């Protein structure tokens, strides 16, 4: 059962607000989270399995002040009292939620940045589509019956992360060859265009900037994913030759590239972010902090959203020293630092209840 907001506020009531610590799992975007927290004056705690990862020694500015070791990620649940005594505020990221599991994360008795209720809407592909479409967002066409496949379609298994479990099919026969019937999946149109991953930040407590019905919206960066063999595979043969050899592109994310979008599209980029936030306020009380709209920009300059990530994404790691967009908010601002700054501002304004759950 999900921990209640009231339970979290009671835990937070016993914290020493002058000694808050930023804590997250040592993975995904932890380097910039720790670096940003330190720049905002917070102590940092890195949660890790068995022994502290050695590579943090190579990055002294991003090495946590303290490592908190567990035998496995599920053990975090039984050690929440220890972390609470350290005044820990948990920062969720994709790996943290994936390793612990959404259900277990929602049971975590520790103050957590953001609104946990978003996990239910984000992790279920049907619910996230309902959210986005209700917000007026254009999305790729989706079909329910695989026998209706008559053009390139992207098949995605539920819970697939980082592009793992994605594949493209062109017809029903192709689908039958590649599908795992034991897995739950969705089928959506494969949209030709350039992929842009928009990094937003929503603050319910900030009043200056791009104003929403409550709070403000920021754009902190844009990236593109480098996906396993998908970007290189056609160097070794034509699509027909590859299919005959049963060699298919895979979409596992292995890295990220920085991007900027043509300036004339920025009004639409902000409108999409605004629509998604406003609908989240209506549906589940609003998401807080960083989120990413994963989009395709077509040759007619239409933007279609194929997925949403409702927390910090790894593509923001490109911009630890700022991005062309974040620099126009505050020079050198990373998403990790922006999270820490939101917590700091909320603490100083006695509004922590607005940004944690």
What does this structure look like?
This is 5-formaminoimidazole-4-carboxamide-1-(beta)-D-ribofuranosyl 5'-monophosphate synthetase. 5-amino-1-(5-phospho-beta-D-ribosyl)imidazole-4-carboxamide binds at residues 28, 95, 256. Helix content is 30%, strand content 23%. It has 357 residues and is of the alpha+beta class. It folds into three domains: 1-112, Rossmann fold (3-Layer(aba) Sandwich), CATH 3.40.50; 114-138 and 192-357, D-amino Acid Aminotransferase, Chain A, domain 1 (2-Layer Sandwich), CATH 3.30.470.20; 141-190, Dna Ligase, domain 1 (2-Layer Sandwich), CATH 3.30.1490. The strands form three sheets. Strands 9, 10, 11, 12, 13 and 14 form a six-stranded antiparallel sheet that branches. A four-stranded parallel sheet has the order 3-2-1-4. A four-stranded antiparallel sheet has the order 5-8-6-7, covered by helices on one side. It is globular, with a radius of gyration of 21 Å. The two termini are 14 Å apart. The model has no long low-confidence stretch (mean pLDDT 91).
Helical residue percent? 25-40%
Number of strands: 14
The CATH topology of the largest domain comes to: D-amino Acid Aminotransferase, Chain A, domain 1
Number of helices: 13
Concise description?
This protein has 357 residues and is α+β, with helices and mostly antiparallel strands. It has three domains: 1-112, Rossmann fold, CATH 3.40.50.20; 114-138 and 192-357, 2-Layer Sandwich (D-amino Acid Aminotransferase, Chain A, domain 1); 141-190, ATP-grasp fold, A domain (Dna Ligase, domain 1, 2-Layer Sandwich), CATH 3.30.1490.20.
